[in-house]
Design a protein that fits this description.
single chain; three-stranded antiparallel sheet; 3 domains; hpI Integrase, Chain A; two-stranded antiparallel ribbon; 49% helix; 5 strands; DNA polymerase, domain 1
């Protein structure tokens, strides 16, 4: 009881001792397999402790961890995690069916280097490594593995060789050209919406009529990235565009041809906006060159409209705290109700943005 079986039950202790003896004999006779060891030790552990002992393979554990995150993170984050786990398990090959503890820093570093060789940018590769750190840290904290193979010291992040990677802003004249170059009314309205509200790409494309209060002239949305509720007064020029559209009811999308589409990918909204930029003959600085499976990155993108929104207000002398509040960067309560008095400085800030000459 003190040295071996940890039980005072003589019958159980003898049974455990006999099973150990059988394993030892099989080992000496070179008839012992890893699956036999797992089975016998697992059965003994459950009899003594009362709980099953799980021998987790890399695939089993990472899949289990992924499913457990589904209810705790945003859907976009979940699918990013899903893609990372899928790519890493594919890289492991048959080793994915081995025990989780057999995954080493070498496996992770070779995956990192493979992603880099495919042409993915340093920020993209580093983002994947940071995602992979989460399940392995949890495995180490829970005692499933003795050594975490994805620590900061064991797997270094890539150095980003790009310089001056800050995003640029569209000039007012360029935004007018972009709107005129857009082939659909939905894209014209969405470019205008982002410039006059600072909303991000998916917040714009998924805007619903229920979020628009035409009586108070405000748009209220819960942003997908931060889950903060942001209320922005409607700029007169965008209000004029809205009046020309068929008004939808409730959850009807304001931009029906764009709602539900992915932001990324060859057929995503980001690439569609890039094609609008090409038609408008507007190009940004090249931040990162296309390499392999990666893609080139420009200093101008749809997100630059958000920067243009902030810059336009800054140039008009709007106070930083007001700009932060409109952009959704403040720490105000999620469900804050704006009074008429509170809206006045916000209305003045948005109204200070010059109208576009279309």
């Amino acid at each position: 009881m003190r040295r071996s079986t940890k039980t005072t039950d003589k019958t159980l202790a003898e049974k455990i001792a006999m099973e150990w003896a059988e394993l030892a004999n099989a080992g000496r006779g070179k008839r012992l397999t890893e699956s036999q060891c797992r089975k016998v030790i697992g059965e003994m552990y459950e009899r003594v402790i009362g709980e099953p002992l799980h021998f987790r393979t890399a695939r089993t554990y990472l899949t289990e961890w992924l499913e457990n995150t589904k209810g705790d993170v945003e859907i976009r984050s979940y699918w990013r995690y899903h893609q990372t786990m899928h790519d890493f398990l594919k890289h492991l090959g048959t080793k994915a069916e081995r025990l989780l503890r057999e995954i080493t820093p070498i496996d992770v570093r070779s995956w990192r280097d493979k992603l880099k060789a495919k042409g993915l940018s340093a920020p993209t590769v580093n983002g994947a490594i940071k995602v992979l750190r989460m399940p392995f840290k949890a495995a180490h904290d829970n005692g499933y593995i003795d050594i975490n193979p994805v620590t900061k010291n064991s797997v270094k992040l890539l150095r980003d060789e790009a310089r001056n990677v800050s995003k640029d802003v569209f000039k007012r004249e360029q935004i007018a050209v972009l709107i005129n170059a857009a082939l659909s009314e939905d894209w014209k309205g969405m470019v205008m919406l982002s410039y006059f509200t600072g909303l991000r790409l998916r917040d714009c494309s998924e805007l619903r009529w229920s979020s628009i209060n035409l009586d108070q002239h405000v748009i209220t949305v819960e942003t997908q990235k931060t889950r903060k509720t942001v209320t922005v007064p409607i700029h007169p020029q965008f209000a004029a565009w809205l009046k020309k559209q068929p008004i939808g009811i409730g959850k009807a999308p304001v931009f029906p041809t764009l709602a539900g589409k992915s932001g990324s990918g060859k057929s995503g909204l980001s690439m569609a906006f890039k094609r609008i930029m090409d038609r408008a003959n507007i190009k940004g600085r090249l931040l990162r060159k296309k390499n392999g499976a990666g893609r080139s990155q420009s200093s101008l993108s749809f997100h630059s409209l958000r920067h243009s929104f902030n810059s336009a207000m800054a140039n008009a002398g709007v106070a930083p705290e007001v700009r932060q509040r409109l952009a959704g960067h403040s720490s105000a309560d999620m469900n804050r109700v704006y009074t008429h008095h509170e809206l006045e400085p916000l209305r003045a800030a948005v109204a200070a943005i010059p109208s576009l000459r279309l």
